[in-house]
Automatic annotation (TrEMBL):
Gene3D superfamilies for this protein: UbiA prenyltransferase (1.10.357.140)
Organism: Mycolicibacterium llatzerense
UniProt-annotated location(s): Cell membrane; Membrane
NCBIfam families: menA, PRK06080.1-3
EC number(s) from the headed UniProt entry: 2.5.1.74
Keywords carried by this UniProt record: Cell membrane, Membrane, Menaquinone biosynthesis, Transferase, Transmembrane, Transmembrane helix
Gene transcribed to yield this protein: menA
Lineage: Bacteria, Bacillati, Actinomycetota, Actinomycetes, Mycobacteriales
Protein name as annotated: 1,4-dihydroxy-2-naphthoate octaprenyltransferase
């Protein structure tokens, strides 16, 4: 049976910035329009973290039973490495998704009930990424889904549940966070191109090929800093977001250098850290309104 540390690694903690950064950014956007509600932000954080853990375990289960993870260079997969039974990993996924669904339901009911439909779409998206008979993650749509769910929906949803409105600042933040969140998946799929090709998992990286995937990653990590200049129209203090640029440069270095396999694993960490630091800095400015 898998140890506690292996279960934690199976939850892929390196992806947690993808859950935390959108809530930070959405709360900053809500504060900017004078509508931050901190207990709602806490509920949104629970939803986001539970969903990303749930989708990670769901991917572990679905890829494991398909044999996609039999040969991989990335972090441990519980089913693929035969550290845990498929049923146990599926149960962990279902529990995590149920926590997210229950918390999201409560948040929707105290905000706007029609948000329940958005939440249902998020749960479906989490499962169908690699689950079901025709997973969209196997058709090169994973990055698009991450941009939508962990960028647009997560940031604007967090802003809306607190302020009951969205604005252009929230939209810019959503695009920036979505770009970095997608970049994490691009780096992951760049690393896995050789094994995904063998297993028949047609990710966007497989479709684009190695060279174009590396260029896409660099565009996605640069875009938030272009948008940082746009946010300066709201307040010049948003330029503090450029302080995260050295982290983005560090994240992109192995990609630009042509490294592959396990040498790309730190890219996921550094891209996530870039996203988290950028969101925290810009959010602090929007909350303080200097």
């Amino acid at each position: 049976m898998a140890s506690l540390s292996q279960w934690i690694e199976g939850a892929r903690p390196r992806t947690l910035p993808n859950a935390v950064a959108p809530v930070l950014a959405g709360t900053g956007a809500a504060a900017w329009v004078g509508g931050a509600v901190w207990w709602k932000a806490a509920l949104a954080l629970v939803v986001s973290v539970a969903l990303i853990i749930g989708v990670n375990y769901a991917n572990d289960y679905s890829d494991g039973i398909r044999g996609t993870d039999d040969d991989r260079s990335g972090p441990v997969r519980l089913v693929g490495a035969k550290l845990a039974s498929p049923q146990a990993v599926l149960a962990a996924a279902v529990i995590s998704l149920c926590v997210g669904a229950g918390t999201g339901l409560a948040l929707a009911l105290v905000s706007q009930p029609w948000l329940i439909a958005i939440g249902a779409a998020c749960i479906a998206g989490a499962w169908l990424y690699t689950g079901g008979t025709n997973p969209y993650g196997y058709r090169g749509l994973g990055e698009v889904a991450v941009f939508v769910f962990f960028g647009l929906v997560a940031v604007l949803g967090t802003q809306y549940t607190q302020a009951l409105r969205i604005d252009w600042v929230g939209l810019v933040l959503a695009v920036a966070v979505g770009s970095l969140s997608s970049a994490v998946l691009v780096a992951n799929n760049l690393r896995d191109i050789p094994t995904d090709q063998v297993s028949g998992k047609i990710t966007l990286a497989v479709r684009l090929g190695d060279a174009r995937t590396r260029r896409l990653f660099q565009v996605l990590t640069a875009l938030p800093f272009v948008l940082t200049a746009v946010l300066a129209l709201a307040t010049p203090w948003c330029l503090v977001g450029f302080a995260a640029a050295p982290l983005a440069v560090r994240a992109a270095k192995p990609v630009r250098s042509g490294l592959g396999g396990r040498e790309l694993i730190p890219v996921l960490r550094d891209t996530g850290l870039t996203m988290l630091v950028w969101a925290a800095l810009v959010t602090a400015v929007l909350v303080i309104k200097p």
